[in-house]
Design goal:
By secondary structure, the protein is mainly beta. Helix 5 (about 245-255) packs parallel to helix 8 (about 405-420) and helix 6 packs parallel to helix 7.
Length: about 1100
C-alpha cells in the first residue's frame, strides 16, 4: 500500500544529541548541519571565509579547525545565503549562520555530532534528516481501491491532499451527506450558515431566515446544497436504491485519513450536494439535471460532476455548460455505458458538450471497460470498473461499474490540480488534465484515437511544472576488483553508474521542471553488501536530459555467497532545495549481480533437448562448448561465447534427438561425435567439423546414442535403439558390428545403458520398454542374458536407467524409475528384483548413484515430478530427513558435485519455474542458489572448469539458448559431472523430455535488448521472426520523433541483427540521451529503451 505524505520531522535539540545515532536510512551520508554563533560570525551575511588545506577545511577558528582535522571535514557550504530579515534569530540561532559540513566518510558521524556540539564556535550540530513521505493513511479499505494506483493518486498526495477551498458539485440523485466517510468534506454555505443548525446524525437542517443570502443560485437557506426534486434545502438521499449520487460523491471526495472506509481522489475538498431523485421510490433518471448544473455554477463551484446524460442534439446542454464555464466551473461528464462510439450519428449530452470534460472508463490494466462508450469526442479516461465507494445502506460501501464512477474519479483529480492552481480557468484546467494524461493506445489497439488523451494521471497533472520527474532508466555495473572477467559478480568490488533522467513523455513531449543541484545518495542494507562510495552529483538537468555519474560512480562490495536474487538499493534524489517544492524522492532499484560466465548466455532463439559437452578441443587448457543450436546445427564455441571453433557449426540434415556422445571411435588423432537425428539417421563427425558417416537406423529414433567398448580389447562402438526395438551397434567406420542390428520386442523411448552385468568381460546393452519389459542384450552375440527380459509390474519408463553396484556382490544392479507408475526398481544382474519402492507420483527424471555426504557409501538420488528429492541407500530406503521438497515440478535429471567446502555435495538441477538449484542432503541450498534463470529448465547441466580459473562452471540449455553459470569457487569433486555420467553417455542414460516426441519448439517473434546498452558509438539490435513478414525497425527520440529507419521491408523467419551507429536518417550524429527502438512485424510490436553516451 502506497502511503500518503507527511514530512518526517526531526526534533532540533541544542547540545549533544546522545539519543539519536547515525542511521543511513534516516540521515544523509557524510553530512552534518551546524549553526555558528553570532560571535564566531559577526557579519549579518553569515559568511565564513574558509579554504581547504591538504583536503581539510580551515576557517581560522582554532578549536573548530582542530576538530576539522580530527573528523576529516573536507568541505562546508552555507545553507541560506539569502535571508529576508537577517536580524531575526531564534535565541541566537541565525538562519544565515547554518552550514552543511561534509565529512570524508560515515565512520565518525556520531562522534562528529558529539564533538561539534561542544565546540564554542557552534550553537549546535546535528545530522541532516532525509525528508520523505511518511503520511500513513488509515482508511482501511484503501488496499481495495486500485484506481488510486492507476491514476497515481499517492504520488500526487505527497504534495497535496486537496483543499476545502475547492468546491466540487455532485449533480445527481442526491447525496447521503451525513455518511461518516463524507461528513467532513460536505460544503457548508458560509453565506447561509449564521443561525442554521445541522443534525449530522439525523441528517436534518434547521433554522434559517427564509431569505436568499444572495451568494448565487437563488435558493433560500441552501446550507449544504439543494433538493431540486422536492424543491427544499435538504438534498439528503436516504432511499437505498437511489444511492448513485452518494457513490459518486465518495469517488471524488470521500474523506481521507479518518480511520474508516475509503478515500476519494481528492481527500480534502468541499462537496456541494444536489438532488434530483425521489426519496421514496427508485429513480429512472436524474430530474432537473441541468438546473442542478446551473445552480452549482452560480453558487461558485469550481468543478461540476455530471454522471448522467442522454442522447439529443445538444443545443441546450451546450448553452448550460458554456454558461457555467463562463462562471468559472469545469463540467466533468460520464461518456456513457452503451459500448457505443460517439460520432456524427450518435451523441450523448452533456458528455459531448464542447466545453465539458468527457470521461470514458478503463478497468484494471488500463484496458477500456467493456461497457464504456468511446469515440472522437472522448477527452480522457479514468478507472470506472469495480470502483469501491460510499453507499446509503448501513452507511456502507460497495463496488460499482460505470462511466458514472470514472467521471468523479477524474473530477477529484481536477480538484487536486485546482488546489495548487486556483487561478486556472475551466478551459485551462481541462487542457492541463488532458495534456498530462498517460497514453494507453498500445493497450487498446482497437480504440486508437477513441479514448481521448489517455488515462488521467493525478501526479503529472498536479506537479509537472513544479518539480522535476527523476527516474533511473538503467544502470551499468563494472568490476573493479575480482576475477578480472569483466562481469560484476558476488564477492567483488563493483562500480555502479546510473542513467538518471529528468523524464519527458515520449509520446506527448511533456516535460517536467528543470532539476538543479541534483544529488543522489545510494543506500543498501541487504546482508552482505557494503557501500564504499554513496554520493554522486549530477548538476543541472533539463527536462529530457539523461546523465550518467561517470566521474562519481557509486561503489560497493559484496560477499561471494550472496543469494542469487535482486538486491534492493535505494537512491535518494535531491534537487531544487530552495524552491517552493523541494524535490526529495527515494527511487528503489533492484540490482542483479551476475553469475554468468563472461560472454554468456548464448541466445539462439529456441530451446534444445540436448545437454552440452565441455571439452578442451585444442589442448590449450580451456574448454570449448559443444551444443545444439536453434536450427539443429552443432555449434562449438570458445569460452568467450563469441568465437566459433574452426570447422563449426556442422550443418545437419535434421533436428538432433537426445544428446551428443563423444569418443575416439576410429583410433585416429581426432575426437568423434555421434548424434541421432529426427530423420532417423545417425551422424558421425569429428572435431574438425568433418562428417565421417551418416547411417540409417532402421526405425524411428526417440533417444540419443551411446559410445562404449564391448570388451577391453575392442575399439569403441556406437549403440542406439529405435522406438520399434531395433538395436544398432556401429563400428568406428559406420559399418555394422558383428551380430547387429538385433530386434527386441517392445517400444523404446529411453536410450540404452551399458554395463557388464554377468562379469563375462563383455558389455551388455540394457533397455527398458514402455510396457515394463527390461531387456539385457550381450554385445558378444546379440542374445538376451539369462533371466531377461524381466517384466516390471509397475510399468515401463521413458526415463533412462542407471547401472550401479548397490550391494556387496561384484555384479552391478539396474535402477529403473517407471514414468507414470511412480516406482523405483532395483534389479539384480540375473533379472531378480532387489527392491521395489513406491514413490507415489510421476517420475520424469533418471536415478543417479553417488556419495552425496562423503561417507564413502554411494546413495541413490532420484527427483520425483512433484519436486521431492529422494536420497536412498542401496536398498531404496530413505535416508533420515529425506525426501527434501522444493515444491516445484522437476523434469531435469541432476548432476552432482561437491563444491561448497564441506562434505555435502550439491544436487544440481533445474525446475519448471526456471530456477537452477543446488540442494544438499541437509535440506539447504548451496550459497548463491537457487539461481533465477527463467523459462523451464528440463535438460541436465554439465559441470567443468571452462576457463582454467579453478572455479566451477555449470552449462545448461534454456528456452532461448545456452547459459553458463560461473560459480566463484572450485569443486572438490565432480561426482556426476554431466549427462549420462560421461562423454560416452554410458553410465546414466535418460530422456529429459520423456512425455512428448523431443523436438525444437517453434521460433517465436521477439525483440531482444540492444547490446551494448548504454553504448558509444554503436549498438546491435537483434530480433527473431517466427515467419516471413513485412518488418519495420525505427529509432525514436524522447519526444517521440522518428530519427532513424534501420529497416523497412520483408524479412525471412529467423534471427536478424541491425547495427545503429548513433546517426539519423540524414547521416547526422544525434545527441546523447535516451532513445527508443520499435520493431513491428505483422501483428507483433515491441518498443525498448537504450542510452547513447558521449
Amino acid at each position: 500500500m502506497k502511503k500518503l505524505s507527511i514530512l518526517l520531522m526531526l526534533i532540533i535539540a541544542i547540545g549533544v544529541l546522545t539519543a539519536i545515532n547515525f542511521d543511513p536510512e534516516l540521515f544523509y551520508s557524510k553530512t552534518i548541519i551546524a549553526c555558528f554563533t553570532k560571535t564566531a560570525i559577526p557579519n549579518l551575511d553569515g559568511v565564513v571565509n574558509f579554504d581547504v588545506q591538504d583536503g581539510i577545511v580551515s576557517t581560522g577558528m582554532s578549536s573548530f579547525d582542530q576538530l576539522a582535522k580530527e573528523l576529516h571535514i573536507v568541505d562546508m557550504k552555507q545553507m541560506h545565503p539569502y535571508v529576508k530579515v537577517p536580524e531575526w534569530n531564534d535565541n541566537g540561532i541565525y538562519l544565515q549562520n547554518h552550514y552543511r559540513l561534509y565529512l570524508e566518510s560515515d565512520d565518525n558521524m556520531d562522534k562528529a555530532v558529539e564533538l561539534l556540539s561542544k565546540d564554542p564556535n557552534l550553537v549546535y550540530a546535528e545530522f541532516e534528516g532525509i525528508n520523505r513521505p511518511k503520511y500513513v493513511t488509515n482508511d482501511p479499505m484503501l488496499d481495495l481501491q486500485y484506481a488510486h494506483t492507476l491514476v497515481h493518486s499517492f504520488e500526487a498526495w505527497d504534495y497535496t491532499l486537496g483543499s476545502h477551498d475547492v468546491l466540487v458539485a455532485i449533480t445527481d440523485s442526491g447525496v447521503k451527506w451525513n455518511h461518516p466517510d463524507l461528513r467532513a468534506n460536505i460544503w457548508i454555505n458560509p453565506a447561509e450558515s449564521p443561525g442554521m443548525t445541522i443534525d449530522w446524525n439525523a441528517g436534518t437542517i434547521s433554522g434559517g431566515n427564509g431569505v436568499d443570502a444572495g451568494e448565487g443560485g437563488n435558493k433560500v437557506d441552501d446550507l449544504v446544497g439543494w433538493d431540486f426534486y422536492n424543491n427544499d434545502n435538504n438534498p439528503m438521499q436516504n432511499f437505498a436504491a437511489n444511492d448513485h449520487g452518494t457513490h459518486v460523491a465518495g469517488c471524488a471526495g470521500a474523506v481521507g485519513d479518518n480511520e474508516i472506509g475509503v478515500v476519494g481522489t481528492c481527500p480534502n475538498v468541499s462537496i456541494l450536494c444536489c438532488k434530483g431523485s425521489s426519496n421514496t421510490s427508485p429513480s429512472t433518471g436524474v430530474s432537473y439535471a441541468y438546473d442542478q448544473v446551473k445552480y452549482a455554477g452560480e453558487i461558485g463551484a469550481d468543478i461540476i460532476n455530471a454522471s448522467w446524460g442522454s442522447v439529443g442534439s445538444g443545443t441546450y446542454p451546450n448553452s448550460i455548460v458554456n454558461y457555467v464555464t463562463a462562471l468559472g466551473a469545469l463540467v466533468v461528464t460520464a461518456a456513457g455505458n452503451e459500448n457505443t462510439e460517439h460520432n456524427a450519428s450518435y451523441q450523448d449530452y452533456p458528455a459531448d458538450c464542447t466545453n465539458a470534460l468527457c470521461v470514458a472508463a478503463v478497468a484494471q490494466g488500463d484496458v477500456k471497460a467493456s461497457f464504456s462508450d468511446y469515440g472522437s469526442t472522448i477527452d480522457i479516461c479514468a478507472p470506472g470498473a469495480a470502483i469501491l465507494s460510499t453507499i446509503i445502506t448501513g452507511d456502507g460501501y460497495a463496488a460499482y461499474d460505470g462511466t458514472s464512477m470514472a467521471s468523479p474519479v477524474a473530477a477529484g483529480v481536477a480538484a487536486l490540480v485546482k488546489s495548487l492552481n486556483p487561478n486556472l480557468t475551466p478551459v485551462e484546467l481541462m487542457q492541463r488534465l488532458m495534456a498530462t494524461a498517460d497514453n494507453i493506445d498500445s493497450l487498446n489497439p482497437d480504440y486508437v484515437g477513441l479514448l481521448g488523451a489517455g488515462r488521467i494521471n493525478a501526479y503529472t497533472a498536479t506537479m509537472y511544472d513544479k518539480i522535476p520527474n527523476m527516474q533511473i532508466e538503467d544502470y551499468i555495473l563494472e568490476e573493479i576488483s575480482g576475477d578480472d572477467d569483466g562481469v560484476a559478480n558476488p564477492g567483488e568490488v563493483i562500480k555502479l553508474r546510473i542513467a538518471l533522467s529528468n523524464c519527458i513523455d515520449p509520446i506527448t513531449g511533456l516535460g517536467w521542471l528543470q532539476a538543479e543541484n541534483v544529488t543522489v545518495t545510494m543506500r543498501c542494507h541487504y546482508p552482505g553488501v557494503t557501500i564504499i562510495d554513496s554520493v554522486a552529483t549530477f548538476g543541472t538537468m533539463h527536462a529530457g536530459t539523461t546523465l550518467l555519474n561517470n566521474n562519481q560512480p557509486f561503489k560497493f562490495q559484496t560477499v561471494s555467497t550472496l543469494p542469487s536474487e535482486p538486491i534492493p538499493f535505494q537512491f535518494y534524489v535531491q534537487a531544487n532545495q530552495d524552491n517552493q517544492y523541494p524535490y526529495n524522492k527515494a527511487l528503489p532499484i533492484d540490482i542483479s549481480l551476475s553469475l554468468n560466465q563472461a560472454g554468456w548466455p548464448f541466445y539462439s532463439g529456441a530451446a534444445t533437448n540436448s545437454t552440452p559437452l565441455l571439452i578442451d578441443m585444442d589442448d590449450d587448457g580451456q574448454k570449448e562448448v559443444v551444443f545444439v543450436g536453434a536450427d539443429g546445427n552443432i555449434e562449438v564455441l570458445h569460452k568467450d561465447g563469441l568465437t566459433s571453433y574452426p570447422g563449426f557449426p556442422v550443418q545437419t540434415s535434421s533436428v538432433i534427438i537426445g544428446s551428443i556422445a563423444m569418443g575416439n571411435i576410429n583410433n585416429d588423432s581426432n575426437r568423434e561425435f555421434v548424434a541421432c537425428l529426427q530423420n532417423n539417421q545417425v551422424i558421425c563427425f569429428n572435431d574438425l567439423g568433418e562428417v565421417k558417416w551418416n547411417n540409417a537406423s532402421g526405425g524411428t529414433l526417440r533417444n540419443g546414442p551411446v559410445i562404449f567398448r564391448p570388451n577391453a580389447a575392442s575399439e569403441l562402438k556406437v549403440a542406439c535403439v529405435t522406438q520399434n526395438g531395433i538395436l544398432n551397434i556401429f563400428n568406428g567406420d559406420g559399418s555394422n558390428f558383428t551380430n547387429f542390428p538385433v530386434t527386441v520386442t517392445g517400444a523404446y523411448l529411453a536410450p540404452p545403458a551399458i554395463g557388464d552385468l554377468n562379469n563375462d568381460g563383455y558389455m551388455d546393452i540394457v533397455m527398458i520398454a514402455l510396457n515394463g519389459s527390461l531387456n539385457a542384450i550381450s554385445s558378444q552375440n546379440g542374445q538376451s542374458l539369462p533371466g531377461f527380459p524381466v517384466s516390471l509390474t509397475g510399468g515401463g519408463s521413458q526415463n533412462a536407467i542407471c547401472i550401479a553396484n548397490l550391494d556387496s556382490d561384484p555384479e552391478p544392479e539396474i535402477l529403473v524409475a517407471s514414468s507414470s507408475g511412480g516406482y523405483l526398481y532395483g534389479v539384480n544382474h540375473n533379472g531378480s528384483v532387489l527392491f521395489q519402492k513406491n514413490i507415489g507420483t510421476q517420475i520424469k527424471t533418471s536415478p543417479v548413484v553417488v556419495d552425496v555426504n562423503n561417507d564413502n557409501i554411494k546413495e541413490i538420488v532420484l527427483i520425483a515430478n512433484n519436486g521431492n528429492i529422494y536420497i536412498m541407500d542401496g536398498m531404496g530406503v530413505d535416508l533420515p530427513n529425506t525426501p527434501i521438497g522444493i515444491n516445484t515440478a522437476v523434469e531435469c535429471t541432476p548432476v552432482i558435485a561437491r563444491f561448497d567446502g564441506g562434505n555435502n555435495a550439491g544436487i544440481i538441477f533445474g525446475d519448471s519455474s526456471g530456477k537452477l538449484h543446488s540442494v544438499r542432503i541437509d535440506g539447504t541450498e548451496s550459497p548463491n542458489f537457487p539461481i533465477e534463470i527463467g523459462g523451464i529448465l528440463k535438460v541436465s547441466p554439465t559441470l567443468a572448469d571452462i576457463d582454467g580459473d579453478n572455479d566451477l562452471e555449470i552449462a545448461f540449455p534454456t528456452n532461448s539458448g545456452l547459459s553458463i553459470i560461473d560459480v566463484k569457487r572450485g569443486a572438490q569433486a565432480l561426482l556426476w559431472p554431466n549427462y549420462l555420467g560421461g562423454f560416452g553417455r554410458t553410465c546414466n542414460a535418460y530422456q529429459p523430455t520423456p512425455v512428448v516426441d523431443p523436438q525444437l519448439p517453434a521460433l517465436e517473434t521477439v525483440l531482444y535488448e540492444a547490446y551494448p546498452n548504454p553504448f558509444n558509438p554503436e549498438t546491435t539490435i537483434s530480433f527473431n521472426l517466427s515467419s516471413p513478414n513485412l518488418t519495420e525497425l525505427y529509432i525514436y527520440n524522447q519526444k517521440g520523433q522518428k530519427v532513424k529507419t534501420l529497416f523497412s521491408g520483408n524479412l525471412e523467419s529467423g534471427n536478424h541483427k541491425f547495427v545503429w551507429n548513433g546517426q539519423d536518417d540524414n547521416g547526422n550524429s544525434v545527441s546523447s540521451g535516451l532513445y527508443f527502438y520499435r520493431m513491428k512485424s505483422g501483428k507483433y510490436s515491441s518498443t525498448k529503451k537504450m542510452i547513447l553516451m558521449k
